[in-house]
Design brief:
Layout (H helix, E strand, L loop, with lengths): L1 H20 L2 H11 L14 H5 L2 H11 L2 H8 L2 H12 L2 H4 L3 E5 L5 H8 L4 E6 L3 H10 L2 H4 L2 E5 L11 E6 L11 H12 E8 L2 E9 L2 H10 L17 H9 L3 E3 L11 E6 L10 E9 L4 E15 L4 E5 L11 E12 L4 E11 L3 E11 L11 E9 L4 E2 L13 H6 L2 H6 L1 H18 L3
Parallel strand pairs: 1-2, 1-4, 2-3, 4-5, 7-16
Antiparallel strand pairs: 6-8, 6-10, 7-12, 9-13, 10-11, 10-12, 13-14, 14-15
Helix pairs in contact: 1-2, 6-8
Bound molecules: 2-acetamido-2-deoxy-beta-D-glucopyranose (NAG).
Keywords: Chromatin regulator, Cytoplasm, Membrane, Methyltransferase, Nucleus, S-adenosyl-L-methionine, Transcription, Transcription regulation, Transferase, Transmembrane, Transmembrane helix
Enzyme class: transferase
Protein name: type I protein arginine methyltransferase
Length: about 450
């Protein structure tokens, strides 16, 4: 008891000094302390790697969100997501049969149940939210699989497992792959729980990027700020705030499913190898960009999406969120420039996509795109055009109410059932439902 209170006391002092000096030695000392175990074998509840970098208010909302069944249902009903995971596991039985598996951020426990179906010897399902209660129920209700699954409540940064795992399974991807900063937990879990050269499902992730041209989207965003151009709003001149309102709308990344014909150059990609990447590598990601425009047009920004590979020893399977492919609950993401660029076919577009992690489990994104103009003056070094924007990945604009050129597969059936005259009659009802849908989508697409 005394030792414990002394430990707490030392720990508080260390924290206090750390907040003053932030010295590396103390950080190591603190790390040593937070890894210390209580006599009963439980980890101390002191600050963990997770708590050090994530605001508690953000974490609280995050785990509350994933603790709710409706959000789990939303992810389970993304059949591209769930179906691809199922296929990747079942087609690679050899990687699971007789193996110890850890499911990182298990949620409802569905991936643990798939692993058990594929013959896993034992699955440890680690989940930090209150969803563990439902996961236990689901697993108990499937006893032939459930007897080989143990649900462990806690963060992968903090919990202990009784044995090392041969293979890890997880769904750590957020919008633009990196949103939610769960990839960091995935690699921390790798270093803590996986045997050397153990398998990871998914194995690698790729962020794909291409410039796009979308006059409608650009005008839509620019027009949102028109409100602030009123000089007589109940006798008040609103124009002093127009500039900031305009910039504000362009600082939101747009999340929707767009027509791939809007892309104006072949995409490039950036690989994140989950088996090799270090946690710190994910704090700041700087991707140099270089494209060659296929057409002459106005470039309105950069379109991004991702895919992940399940590098099974029998079958390699990709889960893609590309435009034109069946739509997932991740959709695609676009950063829109308030100052479009003019390009000609064959012209080079260069730039940077610079992403810096922040403590609200997301990233600030700095995008720069530049072109060197052809034509008169080109010989003297050319006319340089450059446009930049700063967007917060945490504050996306979900643009789902817009007409989608590519109908969502899941949506086709209900739409066919609605007669055109019904739509007219119910237009105001639809509108209010639409608002609800958008709010729901806004919440859902956290994942
Ligand atoms: C996939 O796994 C094989 C070995 O099983 C390895 O040689 C290959 O490099 C892996 N590919 C990727 C992309 O990780």
């Amino acid at each position: 008891m005394f030792m414990w209170s002394l430990f707490i006391c030392l720990h508080e002092v260390a924290l206090y000094i750390l907040s003053f000096f932030g010295s590396m030695t103390l950080r190591l000392f603190l790390f040593f302390l937070s890894e210390m175990r209580l006599p009963n074998g439980a980890l101390s509840t002191s600050k963990s790697k997770f708590d050090d970098k994530i605001e508690s208010s953000s974490a609280k909302m995050y785990f509350h969100y994933y603790g709710q069944l409706l959000h789990q249902q939303n992810m389970l009903q993304d059949y591209v997501r769930t179906g691809t995971y199922y296929a990747a596991v079942i087609e690679n039985r050899a990687d699971f049969a007789g193996r110890v598996v850890v499911d990182v951020g298990a949620g409802s426990g569905i991936l643990s149940l798939f692993a058990a179906q594929a013959g896993a010897k034992h699955v440890y399902a680690v989940e930090a939210s209150e969803m563990t209660e439902y996961a236990r129920k689901l697993i108990e209700g499937n006893p032939s699989l459930g007897q080989r699954i143990t649900v462990i409540k806690g963060k992968v940064e903090e919990v202990q497992l009784p044995e090392k795992a041969d293979i890890m399974i997880s769904e750590p991807m957020g919008t633009l792959l990196v949103n939610e900063r769960m990839l960091e937990s995935y690699v921390i879990a790798r270093d803590r729980f996986l045997v050397p050269n153990g398998k990871m499902f998914p194995t690698i992730g790729r962020i794909h990027m291409a410039p796009f041209s979308d006059e409608y989207l650009f005008v839509e965003i620019a027009n949102k700020a028109l409100f602030w151009q009123q000089e007589n709003y109940y006798g008040v001149d609103l124009t002093p705030l127009h500039g900031q309102a305009f910039q504000g709308y362009f600082s939101q990344p747009v999340v929707d499913a767009f027509d791939p014909r809007l892309l104006v150059a072949p995409a490039m990609h950036h690989v994140i190898d989950f088996t090799q990447v270090k946690e710190e590598d994910l704090f700041e990601i700087d991707i140099p960009l270089k494209f060659v425009a296929s057409v002459g047009t106005r470039v309105h920004g950069l379109a991004c999406w991702f895919d992940v590979l399940f590098n099974g020893s029998t079958v390699q399977r990709w889960l893609t969120t590309a435009p034109g492919a069946p739509t997932t609950h991740w959709y695609q993401l676009r950063c829109v420039l308030s100052q479009p660029l003019y390009v000609m076919a064959g012209q080079e577009i260069t730039g940077h996509l610079h992403m810096i992690a922040h403590s609200a489990q997301s990233y600030t994104i700095y995008l720069t795109l530049s072109t060197k103009m052809w034509g008169p003056g080109a010989e003297q070094g050319g006319v340089f055009q450059s446009s930049a924007c700063k967007v917060d990945l945490k504050e996306p604009y979900y643009r789902m109410s817009q007409p989608q050129p590519y109908p969502l597969v899941q949506d086709q059936q209900p739409h066919q059932l609605i007669q055109p005259q019904d739509i007219n009659i119910q237009s105001d009802i639809l509108q209010s439902e639409d608002l609800e849908d958008r709010e729901l989508l806004r919440q859902q697409t956290l994942s």
